[in-house]
Inverse folding.
């Protein structure tokens, strides 16, 4: 059973997307839809929903090469479709990571069995 975290720290989120934390903070300032909670110490706490929003922003800006303003306009007009696509992409990414870890486990077991013989 996979246990989902309720909140992710900004460093974890930045690592998920392969970007710097400063870029995540910049996007937060530019996209009103992105509003992570803050801990009592002021640390940003991102939910799965925030991560889906970030996936949409990442796809528009980094993958499709849109400007910030272009991404904002696209999100206003097609957000539901974009959010659905982002959710699918995140699910596929998690499934890929799971399958890769399972493959590694199987390889390790096969190696262990062959060493015993």
């Amino acid at each position: 059973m996979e246990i989902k975290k309720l909140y992710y720290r900004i460093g974890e989120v930045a690592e998920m997307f392969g970007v710097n934390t400063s870029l995540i903070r910049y996007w937060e300032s530019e996209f009103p839809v992105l509003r992570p909670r803050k801990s009592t110490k002021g640390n940003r706490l991102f939910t799965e929903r925030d991560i889906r929003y970030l996936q949409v922003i990442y796809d528009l800006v980094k993958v499709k090469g849109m400007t910030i303003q272009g991404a904002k306009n696209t999100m206003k007009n097609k957000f539901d479709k974009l959010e659905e696509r982002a959710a699918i992409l995140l699910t596929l990414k998690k499934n890929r990571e799971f399958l890769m870890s399972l493959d590694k486990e199987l390889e390790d077991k096969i190696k262990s069995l062959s060493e015993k013989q």
About this structure: The two ends are 33 Å apart (CA to CA). Residues 34 and 65 are 20 Å apart (CA to CA). The longest strand covers residues 44-46. The chain has a mean pLDDT of 87.
